[in-house]
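User: Hi! Is it possible to get a structure for several chains at once, not just one? Here's what I have:
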Amino acid sequence: MRSPKRTDRASDTARLLPAVASMALALVVVGASLGAIAVSSGAPLWLVTVMAALVFAGGSEFLVVGLATAGAAPLTVLLGGWLLNARHLPYGLAMGDVLDGGLGRRLLGSHLLVDEAVAFALAESEPRRRRRAYWVAGTTLYAVWAPSVLLGGLLGRGLGDPQLFGLDAALPAGLLTLVLPAVRDRPTARAVLLGCLLAVLTVPLLDEGLAVLVALLGTAAALLPVPGARRGAYVSEGEAV
Amino acid sequence: MTLGLVLALAAGTYAMRAAGPLLRGRLRVSERGRWLLSVAAVTLLAAFVAVSACYESGSFAGWPRVIGVLVGGVLAWRRAPFVVVVLVAAGVTAGLRAL
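Assistant: Yes, the chains can be modeled jointly so their relative placement is included. Here is the combined structure:
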């Protein structure tokens, strides 16, 4: 896949298209089920559609629909949603190189910062391709999200279960496909393993959003010298793939 | 569910999204710092995958989903195309549920 420098923007986009399209398709079904669930639990469809366009973070939107329509206090719902979305802060710091350029680009690009766009960017090792992957994935996914929520709400209850067709496994599996090539060196692998372990073990004790943030502690494992590992084995910006 | 709640959630989420890119425009980050930020993002993303593979609103999501994602992960590791990974993961999960 390491073609010479002559690749232009168009061929970069064409290369990304099948993966981005299948991710988008999975999001369409998830969005549609969010719309259907919202309508069937009595939330106004226009408001859920506005939320999809303005918040653009699926997990927190399901949380709002679920909690708010069950009569939870607005402050509880809000804190839960913020906490679930707090991972975007470290994402944003890591995407600083991708979102360079003018203030306008940074402000616009920030709104496209979702797990999937970050994953597409991190799966690339070269800066230009990284940027391209982020923008192609981000704009595509943004373009389909709110319309599919609206469509799902209009079509109604029949779509209400994202577990139908095993779609709840499709999104994590898709993200995993993108995460694996980003694990380029041993320190990263150690950080990822420790982080996942910490997050999965702490979910029963903490809020789900907080448990994901606990994984950041795993990053420390990338810095530790490991007994038995040869000294100087540290690879910065490993391009060893 | 009110417009006020939606706007507050949107504003907070956008602030957390934009903070990084805006800060990075002002700060000089060393090569090692950049590498570490990227390790942190990969770790966070992987943890998000692990948590969403195992849990559904705070409780265990059930083996069909976990096994589906794991099978997808093995395929991804063997460099299967993205579309294949996603379809097989969904298919395995749906199949196990139908049993």
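Chain A touches chain B through 98 residues (CB under 8 Å). Chain A has eleven helices and no strands.

User: Great, thank you!
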